[in-house]
Design goal:
The protein is mostly helical and 75 residues long. The chain has one domain. It contains two helices and no strands. The termini are far apart.
Length: 75
């Protein structure tokens, strides 16, 4: 999943969270839920990004192997 897709996937939740936080009284259950949701969403990003790095490292490795195999020999 791309970063763009991940952001779009979380957009509705983020908008609801913003509304809950900005338009309810300080310390309300809605604000606390919004903060918990924010914490959860932020905690998911390192896992997502580390998986993306591994995926890209694998893709780059496979691409390098293909380039090396297809490289013409020079004598």
């Amino acid at each position: 999943m791309s970063i763009d897709k991940r952001c779009k996937e979380q957009q509705n939740t983020a908008e609801r969270m913003l509304t809950d936080f900005n338009f309810t009284r300080p310390g309300s259950d809605d604000q606390l839920r919004a903060l918990k949701t924010l914490t959860f969403l932020l905690s998911m990003w390192p896992l997502f990004l580390s998986r993306e790095m591994k995926r890209m490292d694998t893709a780059n490795f496979l691409n390098q192997q293909t380039v090396v195999r297809n490289k013409p020999e020079t004598n």
